[in-house]
Backbone:
């Protein structure tokens, strides 16, 4: 598809809901190595609630309002840190695409730049801290490049997802600075960051969705 | 562990039930006992909310009432409340004049209060924040932003609460809160550990004859652990660290808070205050307002903290203003 419309956005949240339901146990295990194992629960719960809320609201609400509903719903249903961070991402993305009637490559670039900024600000994380920001930042930059080059949405998202996957691999060399993982310091080397894994899952599913 | 409990899992909710039954001047919203608001809201007033983990009574919810705070969200013992709980309190106490958050500098609380402020903003509620960081022991000068918030937040509640009761705007109430925050310093000392009910054993161990200067109100490590000295010697060491942080001149006025951490008798707190008064007098500093008692505890931890608010004319007036909450009553002189 060339652009994601409000009706598609509702389907996208449903796809994300299914994704995190499937990945629940994987994320629990991954987070359990250096965290408190609640990541899989947080993500499956928050996306289930968000998907239900945007479906109930309906496409007439428009893109920005749907994203805002998704973010606000997530903030309420998933009180753990990662739930609050992903919620913040969607609320900031909502503001960034305030007037958009559909999400093409340019709007998608604005969406993910705002998503990254929101999470970095709220979590007080910077690039290199071994967090989701380490995959969101290169992915958002790639989307900006693709938008500048006039790439179609499926091409741009495929490039962003590939960049995110490479970036996730690089988190293995980093030392965790945030959350419960920070206490493990050097022991986090060699492990891919659980939050960054969530970022890659989100972007890959989005790319698949836009290509379908 | 020797505690009065039913099921430890219900510790917080049963505590709250007791408080609501005892004090009809507070109630809760969103069908959630952890979202406390005053039952006596004042039309048009700036709302003030706080929040944080349970286990510190009278902090946080004990200060909800006239002349102090309008709402408080509390989490499990030593755990942050959720952003949703803070947001529900915010919505309930907003009178159209905006809401000020006053809470301690802990990462979980910050992330959830920030999120609550963002949710409130979507509803058109203006929120400002004041993050308490009075604990001198938790980071050095120049890195005050890393300092934890402890008992001195009481002075911020008291002055900002009085400013809001006077009908000041959100910007003005925020200015007062920030001024009180920047002029408050606290030093604490612990003699024994707290016990989190659901954990059931001491958070840390400390020798019978030892003290830890600078320990946090959740048992965070302090500056030094050593043999317990005399009451005077302990205060001398603590006050030295407070005096160097503010430019005190002879004739300056301060408010003093001697706070018990939960397991120390009032008698001992007055013995500590006696020495604080002597030291202030020795420098020509006037202890204009004094409170001695339990204001921010850490379950059954034995120990105490000293907080000093460096007054100016405005803070002097506000700290002395009347207040009436379930845990705190103050009458105008």
Residues:
């Amino acid at each position: 598809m060339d652009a994601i419309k409000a009706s598609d956005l509702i389907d996208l949240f449903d796809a994300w809901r299914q994704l995190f339901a499937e990945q629940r146990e994987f994320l629990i295990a991954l987070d359990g190595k250096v965290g408190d194992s609640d990541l899989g629960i947080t993500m499956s719960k928050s996306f289930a609630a968000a998907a239900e809320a945007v479906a109930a609201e309906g496409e007439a609400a428009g893109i920005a309002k749907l994203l805002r509903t998704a973010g606000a719903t997530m903030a309420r249903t998933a009180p753990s840190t990662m739930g609050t961070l992903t919620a913040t991402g969607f609320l900031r993305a909502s503001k960034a695409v305030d007037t958009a009637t559909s999400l093409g490559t340019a709007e998608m670039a604005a969406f993910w730049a705002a998503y990254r900024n929101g999470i970095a600000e709220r979590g007080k994380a910077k690039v290199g801290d071994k967090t989701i920001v380490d995959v969101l930042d290169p992915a958002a930059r790639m989307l900006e490049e693709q938008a500048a080059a006039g790439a179609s949405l499926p091409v741009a998202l495929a490039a962003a997802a590939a960049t995110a996957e490479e970036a996730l691999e690089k988190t293995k060399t980093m030392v965790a600075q945030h959350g419960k993982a920070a206490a493990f310091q050097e022991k986090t080397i060699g492990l891919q960051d659980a939050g960054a894994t969530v970022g890659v899952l989100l972007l890959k599913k989005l790319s698949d969705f836009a290509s379908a | 562990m020797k505690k009065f409990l039913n099921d430890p899992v219900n510790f917080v909710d049963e505590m709250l039930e007791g408080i609501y039954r005892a004090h009809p001047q507070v109630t809760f919203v969103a069908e959630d006992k952890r979202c406390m608001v005053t039952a006596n809201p004042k039309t048009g007033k700036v709302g003030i909310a706080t929040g944080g983990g349970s286990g510190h009574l009278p902090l946080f919810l004990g200060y909800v009432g006239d002349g102090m705070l309008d709402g408080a969200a509390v989490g499990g013992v030593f755990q942050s409340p959720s952003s949703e709980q803070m947001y529900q309190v915010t919505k309930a106490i907003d009178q159209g004049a905006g809401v000020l958050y006053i809470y301690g500098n802990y990462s979980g609380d910050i992330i959830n209060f920030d999120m609550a402020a963002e949710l409130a903003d979507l509803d058109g509620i203006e929120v400002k924040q004041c993050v308490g960081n009075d604990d001198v022991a938790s980071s050095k000068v120049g890195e005050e932003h890393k300092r934890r918030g402890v008992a001195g937040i009481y002075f911020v509640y008291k002055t900002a609460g009085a400013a809001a009761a006077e009908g000041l705007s959100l910007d003005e109430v925020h200015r007062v809160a920030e001024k009180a925050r920047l002029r408050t310093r606290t030093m604490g000392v612990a003699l024994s550990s707290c016990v989190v009910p659901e954990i059931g054993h001491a958070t840390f161990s400390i020798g019978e004859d030892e003290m830890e200067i600078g320990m946090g109100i959740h048992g965070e490590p302090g500056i030094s652990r050593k043999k317990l000295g005399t009451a005077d010697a302990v205060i001398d060491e603590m006050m030295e660290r407070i005096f160097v942080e503010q430019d005190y001149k002879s004739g300056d006025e301060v408010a003093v808070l001697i706070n018990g951490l939960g397991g120390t008798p009032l008698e001992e707190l007055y013995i500590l205050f006696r020495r604080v008064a002597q030291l202030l007098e020795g420098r020509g500093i006037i202890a204009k307002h004094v409170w001695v008692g339990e204001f921010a505890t850490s379950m059954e931890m034995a120990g105490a903290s000293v907080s000093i608010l460096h007054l100016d004319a405005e803070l002097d007036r506000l700290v002395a203003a009347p207040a009436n909450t379930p845990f705190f009553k103050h009458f105008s002189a």
Residues 135 and 197 of chain B are 25 Å apart (CA to CA). Chain B has two domains: 11-182, 184-330. The interface with chain A takes residues 82-84, 87, 108, 111-112, 114-115, 118-119, 122 of chain B (CB under 8 Å). The mean pLDDT of chain B is 96.
